[in-house]
């Protein structure tokens, strides 16, 4: 492993009361050196799957997702559907590879910040709640465990940031995060969808999985909203806690 990457000897965290400082063994990059930033981001992800609480880096291996209503038709007439995901936990972010980074110049507002990455397998587990009516034949009112698996999950997000000064240092504040996500396959299992009829539950799940692309396209907007909040929750605290100036070598500092 190259010298610039993390040396994981004696995890010595430095914490001051005023602000957080990155663990000392994490090498810094120069502003705008996106190759260096990408390599260090990947080293951080590999070496700290449980996060670094002192700087606001949350665990990546277990990510809690806020409850989300994915579908919310008006509950009237003969065809409507309501679908909610509760207590969802996201597994697999610890296996993220950052592929490309843009931005992070000395003036972070001067260019777009773009972060592009890939995750082999992302899993969502939790509880779902479904209600609905499909013509006069089927009434749906079910709840149970849900599990979704996204294979070859790729993402990019573009950040718009402002800087704010605290104690004479610049901190990044995100005012917009625009994500894109792509998957090769979405596999879902909704347990107990028809509580009285296991065969029907299996059939329903099969239909979903055979037609996942249509569901994915239809649900793109709420799915992106979920990922926006997941990505935000991962990076917001770091930017809040560690000043932008402390993340990088200043131009007259030497790489040691
Ligand atoms: C960027 O950082 C890498 C180390 O990751 C270093 O080898 C390279 O010289 C740096 N590039 C510039 C332009 O400073
Ligand atoms: C990091 O920021 C969050 C709020 O964004 C705060 O709750 C937390 O205490 C901070 N952690 C440190 C070590 O400053
Ligand atoms: C993450 O990678 C590890 C090591 O390859 C693997 O054991 C684990 O199952 C992966 N996590 C997920 C959610 O796929
Ligand atoms: C749905 O089922 C729950 C219990 O599983 C019940 O309390 C509720 O009244 C039902 N709602 C409707 C509209 O049938």
Describe the structure.
- InterPro entries: Haemolymph_juvenile_hormone-bd, To_sf.
- One of its GO terms (biological process) is circadian rhythm.
- Residues 1-16 form the signal peptide.
- One of its GO terms (cellular component) is extracellular space.
- The chain has one domain (34-247): Super Roll (Bactericidal permeability-increasing protein, domain 1).
- Helix content is 23%, strand content 40%.
- The chain contains five helices and ten strands.
- The longest helix is centred in the last third of the chain and has 22 residues, at 220-241.
- The radius of gyration is 22 Å and the shape is elongated.
- Mean pLDDT is 84; it is low at 1-19.
- Bound molecules: 2-acetamido-2-deoxy-beta-D-glucopyranose (NAG) (4 copies).
- Residues 20, 54, 56, 237, 240-241 line the site of one 2-acetamido-2-deoxy-beta-D-glucopyranose.
- One 2-acetamido-2-deoxy-beta-D-glucopyranose binds at residues 4, 29-30, 33, 35-36, 39.
